[in-house]
Amino acid sequence: MPLPLLHELVLKVEGRADATDVTSPIANCPAKQIVNATKESNTKAVVEWNPASCEDNSEWDVGMDCTHQPGEEFELGNTTVQCTCTDREGNIGECCFDIIVKGRSTIVVNVPDRNKLNVHYFFEGSRHHQKVTFK
């Protein structure tokens, strides 16, 4: 049997290197973020977190896109942040996490006379005591 020509061997080796990647990248999101609204607005908070990351089985860079970025301002309530990793072959990996902004308590007490008053209130699941003195 005759030996194959050198260029035929090179073509066969290069053909193997062109195999299609069908494995999706892995998206890694941070844990849920729970923050209090700022004292100034009582309805919003600027939230920081460690950015999401991507892992892939290829040596190529993987693109990352998230619906929100660290340092953005969020309204009261729950916002879901979705992140998508896309590799060179178009395979997609996704993850998501929640950002929860809680409001601050405001208490107004009308006292008919100028006596001392103890105020007890609940804030974010723990009990706080505040002594208020009127003069």
Describe the structure.
Keywords: Repeat. InterPro entries: HYR_dom (IPR003410). Residues 20-103 form the HYR domain. The chain is mainly beta. It has 1 helix and 10 strands; from the N terminus they run αββββββββββ. The strands form 4 sheets. Strands 2-8-7-5 form a 4-stranded mixed β-sheet, with no helix packed on it. Strands 1-4 form a two-stranded antiparallel ribbon. It starts with 5 loop residues before the first helix and ends with a strand.
Provide the descriptors you would attach to this structure in a database record.
mainly beta; 1 helix; single chain; 10 strands; four-stranded mixed β-sheet; two-stranded antiparallel ribbon; 135 residues
